[in-house]
Amino acid sequence: MKGMDDSGFIRLKLDRRAFLKHASSASLAGLALPLASCIGDETSKLEFDGTIAGSAMVRTINRPILIPWSDNTVRILNTTSALPLAYVSLGLRRVYVENMVRDQVIGLLNAHVSVSTGLWRIPLPGDRPEQPLVPGDTSREFEVAAIWDWDPKADPTEGDFRIMAGAGIRTNIHFSCQPISGKEEWYSAGPWSIDQCDPSLDGACREDFQQVGEGIRYTDRNCSSPGETVGFLTWVCGGPPIDLVTVPRPE
Questions:
Q1: d(Cα 41, Cα 198) in Å, to the nearest integer?
Q2: 81 close to 14: Cβ distance less than 8 angstroms
Q3: Per mean pLDDT, which range of 48-52, 63-67, 82-86, 119-123 is the poorest?
Q4: What sign does the CA torsion over 161, 44, 172, 18 have?
Q5: Terminus-to-terminus CA distance in the chain, angstroms?
Q6: Which of 51, 52, 142, 200 has a CA that sits 20 to 30 A from residue 191's CA?
């Protein structure tokens, strides 16, 4: 569904000067810390009160904005007007980047730049660190464009990823019988716990557009009739989601 803002959860308007100031801080921080460590290793378990060990920043989504994605998947939409430092589009085979932080972004993405073609060869999610980036591997080669050419209203492709200025915080998702845009359908899903990037914080974090789990679709407003299973997608920072149902609580 076109015409919706790209994902993120804090509406943060950045002009060019503010963006570059934030980007510079984020890229330097990103080079010092692994991007996958969005909130740190202490966040693998939940405390009894639902907060994250080692972090007071927890966000809860219980009334999400839902939009159709495919026949059996739904997108959880969070809006932001913050530009990413870089956006890797698998559908367009293109990486969008702000030129003034280009070198830092190359390091953050572990990209190899072809001298002859100018294409960026970028590891994909799931690639092993030692896996070589072979010239001619079109699945990992991307044209380069300015971040200002990126359309934040365009739908992402599953597997797209981006580098955001900011830091990751824990987001708990759990909702019941919520409507979806444009259809007479209602959905229940969760509980899940994921990390998402907060662009108001310093640092840099990587987010991947991926499935986070399955829920139930209903055709009656009260969600009382039998439903069917559907998948949910959204932006996730630093690894796969944690299912709250199976996460052990500390003694």
A1: 18
A2: yes
A3: 48-52
A4: negative
A5: 45
A6: 200
